[in-house]
Amino acid sequence: MTVGQQRAWEQHWPELGREVAELPPGPLDFAGWFGRSAPVLLEIGSGMGETTAQLAAAEPEVNYVAVEVYEAGLGQLMLRAEKLALRNLRLLHGDAVVLLNEHIAPESLSGVRIFFPDPWPKKRHHKRRLVQPPFIELVASRLAPGGILHLATDWAHYADQMLEVCSAEPLLRNRFPDWAPRPGWRPRTKFEQRADEEGRVSRDLIFERLPA
C-alpha cells in the first residue's frame, strides 16, 4: 500500500470497514451500521474504487456497500470517499461468497453490481471466474424482488458466459433482449478506456429479480 492508502486504513477503516472473516454470525445489520434504513446496494469487486466512489456520490439515498479482497484497493477507495465526503459508503474486506452466504439475508438487497471482474482469459483458468451458475443462484437469492443485477465486462467470451449463466437462472429476467445499452451513469474507468484502445468492446447486462 502507498503511504496515503495506509493512512486511510488507519483513519477511516474503524468507521467505514469491516473484515468479512470477523463478522458475527448471521445477517449484517446494515441499518445499524449506516445509521439509517435505506436500500442496500452491493458492489462486488470495487477494485481501486474509481467507479465505486462516483456511484456512491451519485446515489446518496442508497446504502452503498463495496466488498473487495485487495487492501490497497480499499485504501484507495477510502481516500476517494474522504475527498468526496461520502457518508453512504461502507466497505468489506474479504470473500464475497462468504459474505452473501453467511451475512446477507435472502431478498434483502436492492441491487448487486459486478463491474469488470477478473476475466481469467486463459481457458484453463475459466473455472476461476466469479460468474458461474452457483454464484449467480446465490446472488439472485439475496436480491429483493425487482432488485437489479448489473454486470459489465470487456472480454467477449466472458460476456457470453455471463449472458448464458444469468439467462439460465430462473429467479432472474433479462431487461433487454441480450446486451443492455451502456448506461451513461456508469463511469468510464481507465481499464475500460484501455480496452477500447485495444479493440475490446465493453458489454453491460442488466437482470431483474423475479418474485420467488
TrEMBL record:
Pfam families: Methyltransf_4. Substrate binds at residues 122, 154, 189-192. CDD domains: AdoMet_MTases (cd02440). The keyword S-adenosyl-L-methionine applies. This is tRNA (guanine-N(7)-)-methyltransferase. GO terms for molecular function: tRNA (guanine(46)-N7)-methyltransferase activity. Catalyzes the formation of N(7)-methylguanine at position 46 (m7G46) in tRNA. It comes from Amycolatopsis sacchari. Pathway: tRNA modification; N(7)-methylguanine-tRNA biosynthesis. S-adenosyl-L-methionine binds at residues 43, 68, 95, 118. HAMAP family: tRNA_methyltr_TrmB (MF_01057). GO terms for cellular component: tRNA methyltransferase complex. Belongs to the class I-like SAM-binding methyltransferase superfamily. TrmB family. InterPro entries: SAM-dependent_MTases_sf, tRNA_(Gua-N-7)_MeTrfase_Trmb, tRNA_methyltr_TrmB_bact.
